[in-house]
Design goal:
Elements: H1 5-16, E1 21-25, E2 28-34, E3 36-39, E4 43-46, H2 52-59, E5 64-68, E6 71-75, E7 79-80, E8 85-88, E9 94-97, E10 104-105, E11 112-117, E12 125-134, E13 137-142, E14 154-162, E15 165-181, E16 187-195
Parallel strand pairs: 2-15
Antiparallel strand pairs: 1-2, 1-5, 3-4, 4-8, 5-6, 6-9, 7-8, 10-12, 11-12, 11-14, 12-13, 13-16, 14-15, 15-16
Length: 200
């Protein structure tokens, strides 16, 4: 497959800006946050952040998915050069593009957090770090699973604060919750939320 210009630019942008991407395999319910280290027309080279205890189950997968920004690519086999993971790009690699708005990623030291009012008691406020955000939604990182973050749960009061200052306030709905091995090698849960009203 000759990678088209748009996808080549997207992948190279992630590579050169050291923006994290997400790698998963169908046989393991964990997504690995990692980096692209090179891009060609035929494949993407990915830093191997799959811990040894997960390698056997991960490698048994029949499908592998790479998510870069809001674009997802898929392949039925990946390879290794002894150090990095080689993710081939084929004719049918692009399986989904959900680019509704430009998405921005944040590192842990950028102090972007979301405060969520627990809809089950309307009293408890939870504060979680924001991983990335666009005009249509955000994803957050949490240390534990919770019924609050089950898919389709409506969160009526969401605030996003940057350096302690209110950036937006909205309501939203949980669209996914997945296990994530983050860049520090810690097992977390990543939760995707779609805003249901225009952010203010």
């Amino acid at each position: 497959m000759l990678l088209d210009q748009k996808n080549r630019e997207l992948l190279e942008s992630c590579w050169k800006s050291k923006q994290s991407i997400f790698l998963s395999g169908g046989k393991l319910a964990i997504t690995f946050q990692t980096y692209i280290t090179a891009v060609t027309n035929e494949h993407v080279v990915i830093e191997n952040r799959v811990k040894p205890r997960f390698i056997r189950q991960f490698s048994k997968s029949e499908q592998f998915t790479l998510q870069a920004q809001m674009v997802r690519y898929q392949t039925d086999a990946i390879y290794s050069d002894g150090e990095s993971i080689i993710f081939p790009l084929k004719e049918n690699s692009l399986i989904e593009e959900t680019r509704q708005a430009e998405r921005f990623s944040f590192s842990a030291d950028e102090r972007v957090i979301t405060e969520i009012l627990n809809p089950f008691d309307n009293e408890t406020r939870l504060s979680k770090p924001v991983m990335d955000m666009s005009a249509t939604g955000l994803s957050l990182r949490t240390n534990f699973d919770s019924k609050l973050f089950s898919p389709d749960i409506l969160l009526p009061n969401i605030k996003v604060l940057i350096d302690g200052e209110l950036y937006i306030q909205s309501c939203g709905r949980v669209v996914y919750s997945r296990k994530l091995l983050d860049l520090n090698g810690s097992l977390k849960t990543q939760v995707g939320i779609k805003f249901e009203t225009p952010s203010t």
